[in-house]
Amino acid sequence: MFDFTGKKVLVTGSSSGIGKAVALEFARHHAKTFVHASRSMEKAQGVCEEIRKEVPDADVVPIVADFLKDDVADVLYEQTGDIDILVQNVSIQYRVAWDEITDEQFADQINVNLRSSLKLTQKYAPYMKQQKWGRIIYVGSIQQHQPHPMMAVYAASKDGQMSLVKNLGKQLAPFGITVNCMSPGTILTPRNEKVLEIKEYHDACLAGIPAGRLGKPADCAGAVLLLASEEGSFINGVELLVDGGAHLL
Q1: Global pTM?
Q2: Which of 28, 169, 182, 218 has the largest count of CB atoms under 10 Å?
Q3: CATH code linked to domain 8-188+217-242
Q4: From the candidates 94, 127, 154, 201, which is the catalytic residue?
Q5: How many other C-beta atoms can be found within 10 angstroms of the C-beta atom of residue 223?
Q6: Residues 111-132: tens digit of each pLDDT
């Protein structure tokens, strides 16, 4: 159904988890895919090798940029040049009670999860506007809908991201650019592995998902590809929840 031949896509935070699954699917559907790791080029190269094992003709390029640095957008652009599709998946999450979070933890989450979303869009949107085609996809969170006692600031950063989606979706639509958000629920990723090993937490998460199972990174990849595709060109300024129905409870 999807064909991204001739398209260049950057998937931030694609060295593991959801981002890795998204990068694999773009490569599988013929996009030139930039695989991003925050600090380790070796890790990014390893993911590219994994993708090539599944997709021998994959056009994948490893890149590195630290989202805690102010120049992250410039560093990324130097490695990618202009792109057609931007998937902003990278994020920082601190599980800390709202009244215990430090200024540094607050700043990290706002800068990486929200500020970088705007900085990268500012960097990559001009080319998209020039060519009258582009896709910008932010990766949100179920925390936007289900408050968690240990993730108040993380949720706030993702709510701010969704506000950008609606605002920029309206402003960029006349240029053939769509801006959307894919928000995952509880997904079996390295970030969640440790906490999901706690039986009580695991069972509570499962009880809150009408689909009766935890999500897999691949569950999110198809949703991102839809939002990035020509078939999804009339979808704009929305949040697509991939949570097995958890937001319904």
Answers
A1: 0.96
A2: 182
A3: 3.40.50.720
A4: 154
A5: 20
A6: 999 999 999 999 999 999 999 9
